[in-house]
Amino acid sequence: MTPREWLRVLLKNPGILPGVAFRITHQIAARFGRQNDLAGFAAQGEGNLEQKLYQSRANWLVETLLDEGADGAIARFLELAAGQLAEDPYSLSQRLCHLVYLKRLLPSGSELPTPLQRLAHTAAAGLAQKPEYRRATTWFNNHLLNNFRAGELYTGEFGNHPDAVDLTQFRQRVEGILTRHLDTLFLNGTGPRLNEGSVSYEILILRHLVDLACCPARTALSDRFREWVVSGAREMVMMYRKDNQWLLPRIGDVTPDWTSRSEQDFLDGLVLGRHTVYRQIWSVELDRLGFTRSGTMNANEGSALEEGP
Asked: Where are the beta strands (DSSP E) in 141-237?
């Protein structure tokens, strides 16, 4: 086992050497500047930090769309925009991506309410100043991948807006870092399977890759991810499909970024071709990538969603 692999084990299993693992984790996190952002947000109001981040990052979006439709999601986002928000890079990335999701679900030619457009531009400007990377370490590169996804999705959806933030330098910088460290992120550096030891994060990062494969903003790296998605996504996830149901072992960390319901919405829409929220976000693009639609309604689907193209 290499030193890097030993360090990963320590970070994932702090009970082995509690003091050492804590100090290493703290030092790495501090170098990324996330701790001050998160500490300040944690001190605001009441509630568990993970629960507050779930709200601030709009990780509830798919659930809300299923239950309340686009109108309910917009109302909840407007309420969110009026409150105190987490400003760490990961939270900015999540909010940006979810705002893009919501915009893509609106009728053609429609725009998000002005406060939500401002929220997107502000998040993009903040993210450009602090991607989650330092030269001496690659430990947060899965977070950096999410930063990259947010920059690409924002550029693809809001890039022509008169108030859009120019993320060209940010995108180029982050793309270069990720390209040099693909072997840290992905098994054998050839994807799409995350080199993390977590099924939950493996599926989550696959969604990030699919977003990048579908996004109209193109780079050399997103084109490589598109090839990975086309050639390997279906085989990767269908190993967890048995007897007409998803059997996803909870091995390793479990991401707080979505619920099992929204995770299933993604899988059903991607490889089963069902008419899910996720399928509606990238309906035409997934068809073009060869992920054809089945015409079958997802059992989780909310009736408020309109039939996609």
From this structure: none
Counting every residue written for the chain, the total comes to 309
DSSP reduced 3-state for 177: helix
Provide the pLDDT for residue 251.
83
Q: Which residues contact 87 (CB under 8 A, 6 or more apart)?
A: 37, 41, 126
pLDDT tens-digit profile of 147-184? 999 999 999 999 999 999 999 999 999 999 899 888 88
DSSP string, 22-74: HHHHHHHHHHTTHHHHHHHHHTSSSS-HHHHHHHHTTTTHHHHHHHHHHHHHH
Closest by CA to 159, choosing from 210, 219, 206, is 219
**Whole-angstrom Cα distance, residue 150 to residue 123?**
10
DSSP 186: B
* 36 CB-near residues (< 8 Å, 6+ apart): none
Higher pLDDT, 182 or 263: 263
H or E segment at 281?
helix 277-281
> Mean pLDDT over residues 119-138, rounded?
83
E runs forming strands in the chain: 241-242, 245-246
Residue 300 neighbours by CB under 8 Å, 6+ apart? 66, 261, 264, 265, 268, 276
Backbone angles phi, psi at 17, to 5 degrees: -135, 80
Read off φ and ψ for residue 245, nearest 5 degrees.
Answer: -150, 160
Q: Which residue, chain included where needed, has tokens 């550029």? A: 155
